[in-house]
Amino acid sequence: MELEALRSIYEGDESFRELSPVSFQYRIGENGDPKAFLIEISWTETYPQTPPIISMNAFFNNTISSDVKQSILAKLQEAVEVHLGTAMTYTLFEYAKDNKEQFMENHHPVHSATSISNIISAETPNTAPSSKKKDKKEQLSKAQKRKLADKTDHKGELPRGWNWVDVVKLSKTGSKDDE
To answer: 57-62, long-range: CB within 8 Å, 24+ apart, which pairs?
Structure first.
């Protein structure tokens, strides 16, 4: 019942997203707004008698400090306690929209760009040798690729004994030379 209501209420709303029939996301604030945040609500099997799972772990929230996230979650949990036993997903989303400024009053964007750039620079030396290997594979001509494919089996492995010397041929040719 609540699922159908949510679908009809938020139909065409770009901020609302149904991840699954029991999990929903709502973006509070506009796309370019630095104080915008994303709330994810997942219903448990016994919802609405038990509280839903509320999360702010989405990548969209990576600039929000953990203290502000915990503060928002605590205020949403208070609202959950008030509405326990009733359908509350819409109510929680609207409560967050109405109190966005209050929720984000202590928000100072956390810039994680330095940590990301450190991770990228730390990984760059490791990825350089693998890119050289890729270049070698890309330089093969069609004829070379066909020849390589003909030598290998369906798994890309060379057949057993591919480098063995054909003893029978050598013994036959060797005996003719001896005569």
So the answer is: 58/25, 60/27, 60/36, 61/37, 62/110, 62/112
Question: What are the pLDDT digits (tens) for 3-44?
Answer: 888 888 888 888 888 888 888 888 888 877 778 888 898 888
pTM for the predicted model, two decimal places: 0.55
Distance CA 15, CA 103 (A): 18
Backbone dihedral angles phi then psi of residue 26, each to the nearest 5 degrees: -140, 130
CB 22 within 8 A of CB 31: no
pLDDT in tens, 40-67: 988 888 887 888 888 888 877 778 888 8
Give the angle 11-14-17 at the CA atoms, nearest 5°. Answer: 75
DSSP structure class, residue 54 = E
Q: Which amino acid is at 80?
A: V
All structural domains of the chain: 1-104 (3.10.110.10)
CB 76 within 8 Å of CB 96: yes
Compute φ and ψ for 123, nearest 5 degrees: -85, -20
**Residue 37 host element (H or E):** strand 37-42
